[in-house]
UniProtKB/TrEMBL annotation:
Its cofactor is Mg(2+). The record marks Y19 as: Substrate discrimination. It comes from Flavobacterium sangjuense. The lineage of its organism: Bacteria, Pseudomonadati, Bacteroidota, Flavobacteriia, Flavobacteriales. This is DNA polymerase IV. InterPro entries: DNA/RNA_pol_sf, DNA_pol_Y-fam_lit_finger_sf, DNA_pol_Y-fam_little_finger, DNA_polymerase-Y, DNApol_IV, PolY_HhH_motif, Rev_trsase/Diguanyl_cyclase, UmuC. The active site is at E109. It is found in: Cytoplasm. Belongs to the DNA polymerase type-Y family.
Length: 360
């Protein structure tokens, strides 16, 4: 008689409208009202939106101008990243009461492997339910969860019953669950890829599953094999408690558009200084510097340069950023500048998870 197959038990916890929920928790007058964290009705970009605002089509990365147009009663608040980080630490402490295999993706979401857990509870669904209950009672905000045999399915499932819900996809349910999903619901399939798939007649997981690996690789290159596997529930990535930081960045959106490179250099100096502080705090350096420029018409341009050596010094970062700035003339006035460093050194013995703070 064959032994039963052993499956991993993975939970993906995702806080509901995290930044906005924290603001509504700290200021009860904001509860039940459409709220945008970041941006303003004249400038900036929305970092997060409450569910009340999402009903009007307000979403993260939307300009404050467009958000206000969508929702005239929208309330804007400035982000308080120190507060969000404080709340995130409280939530992660709860996670670690159940397992040490916790992989944070950001301040507001994480994977947990509870196959073997500190409570000795064989039910991942009951663990997820208990964690969500504790977050609500001890922290004061709600979370949603997805539970399944791997990270991909758990991540997709956590969005299924949002907000304040959970979805369990048992091993025998994985393929039927994925087959019935709209392809845009697949984690890792963005808008551009979804549009390409629609043009190829791929609208659901079932449509995707009908395509051969060769067909998918022909149309989506290396990602084709990934799509071929995930629709079959094949995703073997482990929960990694110490995720290696792949890039470190800082960026600023300005109250007034910049029209002169002289003023841009002044802003880049501040951004480079901020970036240097983050790099030195975690003993990180890198070789590739990328300058991000967002123009007044909201188009974004990036320019990169890879150096033959690792750097973390503000002076070297700034000089390279200036070189990239002068690479070509500005086509419009500039509303945002950012500098990021990647191609990081891999000799760090102690890996860290860095949550970056972006100014709005």
């Amino acid at each position: 008689m064959a032994e039963p197959i052993s499956y991993r038990k993975i939970i993906h916890i995702d806080m509901d409208a995290f930044y906005a929920s924290v603001e509504q928790m700290d200021n009860p007058e904001l509860k039940g009202k459409p709220l945008a964290v970041g941006g303003s009705e004249t400038r900036g970009v929305v970092s997060a939106a409450s569910y009340e605002a999402r009903k009007f089509g307000v979403r993260s990365a939307m300009s404050g101008v467009q958000a206000k147009r969508n929702c005239p009663d929208l309330i804007f608040v400035r982000p308080r990243f120190d507060r969000y980080k404080e709340i995130s630490k409280q939530i992660r402490k709860i996670f670690h009461d159940y397992t040490d295999l916790v992989e944070p993706l950001s301040l507001d979401e994480a994977y947990l492997d509870v196959t073997q857990n500190k409570k000795g509870n064989p039910s991942a669904s009951l663990i997820a339910q208990e964690i969500r209950k504790r977050i609500f009672e001890e922290v004061g905000i709600t979370a949603s969860a997805g539970i399944s045999v791997n990270k991909f399915v758990a991540k997709v499932a956590s969005d299924y019953n949002k907000p304040n819900g959970q979805k369990t996809v048992n091993p025998e349910e994985v393929e039927p669950f994925l087959e019935n999903l709209d392809i845009k619901k697949f984690y890792g399939v963005g808008k551009v890829t979804a549009d390409r798939m629609y043009h190829l007649g791929i609208f659901t997981g079932k449509d995707l599953k009908s395509k051969s690996a060769e067909f998918l690789e022909e149309h989506f290159n290396k990602s084709g094999l990934y799509y071929y596997n995930i629709v079959r529930g094949i995703h073997n990535s482990q929960v990694k408690p110490n995720r290696i930081t792949k890039s470190v960045a800082a960026e600023h959106t300005f109250n007034e558009n910049l029209t002169s490179e002289i003023f841009m250099i002044e802003k880049l100096e501040r951004i480079a200084s901020e970036l240097e502080n983050r790099l030195k705090k975690y003993n990180i350096s890198g070789k590739t510097i990328t300058l991000k420029i967002k123009y007044s018409d909201f188009t974004t341009q990036t320019r990169s340069k890879t150096l033959p050596y690792f750097i973390s010094d503000k002076g070297l970062i700034l000089e390279t950023a200036k070189e990239l700035l002068y690479q070509e003339r500005m086509k419009e006035s500039v509303r945002l500048l950012g500098i990021s460093l990647n191609n990081l050194n891999t000799e760090i013995k102690k890996t860290v998870v860095v949550q970056l703070r972006f100014e709005f």
